[in-house]
Design a protein that fits this description.
The structure is a single chain. By secondary structure, the protein is of the alpha+beta class. 20% of the residues lie in helices and 17% in strands. The relative contact order is 0.14.
């Protein structure tokens, strides 16, 4: 049996069980995707922020505390 999921809590529930193998998409330390599947424990991040930045650009700076934006 196998699962493909983006749900960290589901994957984490299988950690420590005998016979469980985790696979994940490889990402280099700088965030580059290699499009290779590697053995590795589940990560608590979705890596969606890089996709957001590519589509919408950088996130705007938040308004300073106590000031209302124009």
């Amino acid at each position: 049996m196998f699962f493909v999921t983006h749900l960290f809590e589901l994957s984490r529930s299988f950690q420590g069980l005998d016979g469980v193998l985790f696979l994940r998409a490889e990402r280099l330390p700088d965030g580059t995707r290699t499009y290779r599947i590697r053995v590795g424990e589940p990560l608590a991040t979705s890596h969606g922020e890089d996709v957001y930045r590519r589509v919408f650009g950088p996130a705007p700076d938040p308004a300073p505390v106590g000031r209302t934006p124009p």
